[in-house]
Write a structure and sequence with these properties.
Length: 491
């Protein structure tokens, strides 16, 4: 297949995700629908049950102490050793290697940006995604920003007929993002949406590469775009707008891919030595150069060794303990939510991926894949709540626990002093029932959608009495981040 035909076929794009869980490829599952506005009934105020609102901060039943790290260190110390490493170095290496296995995670497996690209596999992945998107546009599940459907000729161009020959001899050119770089799911800049057309949920925004993150340019594309990938997502970038370093030498690229790293604990600027400041945002990972005081930092002129103030970064190769997990988890508290990294925020899965990544533990990008990353226990939908909580608490004693339901994932904190189960997570919204709502009422009837849009501590009661039900009722998987033999004493 010639290159012009290849470019024409791919007008529809790749997967979208964030906190979504789509079959058969990592395409998006949209958030549950917002309540539908309705006319007020006779004798009822138009403001009696608004369709939308803003959540209180802190959230209902979240007390000030619930947002304090020390509180949860004390609570966790009662059930587990805060400072015992959850993995030996060999166990952690094996855990991370599994996240790169396609036989386990398929196209969502972590990619080695320096490994040769399999043309047949890449063509197959893209064809599957194209077919998925064609179905979405044909059914009008996705529309353009003005609400109109994609024109028929563009839908027809999504026919999955890519040939492996279009992807032979791809380079392994690795650069480093110097700022947020949007990664589009389709080879186009134009966003597309579900029919609600919420601008914060652009389905053409797969993710963003963040500052000091490696990114591989696979091949140039029409219209000034390029097919590119990070270790966790693939899509198209705008080469004219993307702020990238020059290509890296393979040895330097390997350092940016594998570390070891120091993690920025705050935003700060470093000089590139040529009169230009390099902005290093919170949570950026920088390869260590010599201990904690020097790191490899990418800038417009390339990569150089720079002094970094030890007070601004973590120690390299910190042990992965419960104390470290809680400390890093709370460092993100109140930072903004963003579907697909919209406006620089983090959705639920990006929050966990970045947080654990700063501790050396690799997670996939999607919620559904993160839920399969450790030891998994399925919770049947009809499982009574007391038994659900018993199983969650038993898992909490074994290791660090993630709680998943379709489209969302949370880090379990444990029980508070009153016995309430709590979690910390990045999320956009939740529903509350209005007075008079009856059990089983349809979605949008006498319920209000409250915006949260950030990383917060909450209980598992949010949503109780609504069409979505409470978090505790929705949890479908418990995932324990611990090695397989975690229940056995380690010598």
């Amino acid at each position: 297949m010639n290159s012009s035909r290849t470019h024409g076929v791919l007008l529809g794009g790749l997967f979208v995700f964030a906190c979504g869980t789509p079959p058969p490829e990592p395409a998006p599952q949209a958030p549950p629908p917002a309540p539908v506005a309705r006319a007020a009934a006779a004798g009822e105020s138009a403001t009696d049950c608004p369709a939308t609102g803003v959540a209180v901060d802190p959230l209902p039943r979240t007390r000030p102490e619930h947002e304090q790290l020390d509180y949860w260190l004390t609570r966790t110390a009662a059930v587990a050793d805060l400072d015992r490493p959850l993995f030996t170095p060999a166990e952690l290496a094996a855990f991370n290697a599994r996240i790169g296995r396609r036989d386990v995670f398929g196209a969502s497996a972590r990619a080695d940006l320096l490994a040769p690209v399999d043309p047949a596999r890449l063509a197959d992945d893209l064809n599957t995604r194209l077919g998925y998107l064609r179905g979405k546009f044909e059914s009008a599940a996705y529309v353009r920003g003005d609400g109109t459907p994609l024109p028929p000729e563009q839908i027809a161009a999504l026919t999955p007929t890519l040939d492996a020959r279009a992807f032979t001899d791809l380079p392994t050119e690795v650069r480093v993002a110097l700022d947020l770089v949007p990664i589009h799911c389709a080879p186009q800049r134009e966003p597309y949406y579900t029919p609600s057309r919420d601008p914060a949920f652009d389905r053409n925004l797969c993710s963003m590469a963040r500052a000091q993150e490696p990114l591989q340019i696979l091949r140039p594309w029409d219209g000034g775009l390029a097919l590119a990938r990070t270790t966790y997502v693939m899509g198209w970038i705008d080469l004219a707008d993307a702020r990238l370093s020059p290509p890296l030498e393979p040895k330097i690229a390997r350092r940016f891919i594998d570390g070891p790293f120091v993690r920025a604990g705050q935003d700060f600027d470093l000089s590139d030595g040529q009169g230009t400041d390099i902005h290093v945002p919170f949570a950026s990972l920088m390869p260590t150069a010599s201990g904690r005081r020097e790191a490899l930092v990418a800038g417009p002129g390339g990569v150089a060794v720079r002094f970094v103030d030890p007070a601004r970064v973590s120690a390299p190769e910190r042990p992965l303990t419960r104390r470290a997990v809680l400390t890093d988890a709370f460092s993100y508290l109140h930072r903004p939510y963003g579907w697909g990294d919209y406006a620089g925020g983090r959705d639920c899965s990006r929050y966990l991926m970045d947080m654990f990544g700063g501790l050396g533990l690799v997670l996939p990008r999607h919620t559904s894949d993160q839920a399969l990353a450790g030891q998994v226990e399925e919770l049947p939908p009809d499982l009574p709540e007391p038994e659900r909580l018993r199983r969650i608490d038993a898992a909490h004693r074994r290791g660090v626990v993630l709680l998943h339901f379709p489209g969302h994932i949370m880090l379990y904190l444990g029980r508070d002093d009153a016995g309430a189960p709590m979690a910390i997570h990045s999320f956009a919204e939740y529903l509350v029932p209005c007075p008079g709502r009856t059990d089983g009422a349809p979605a949008g009837e006498r319920e209000t959608l409250l915006r949260v849009d950030g990383v917060h501590v909450s209980d598992l009661e949010l949503g109780r009495g609504t069409s979505r039900t409470a978090f505790i009722q929705r949890i479908s998987r418990i995932t324990v981040l611990a090695p397989p033999a975690a229940t056995e004493p380690r010598p």
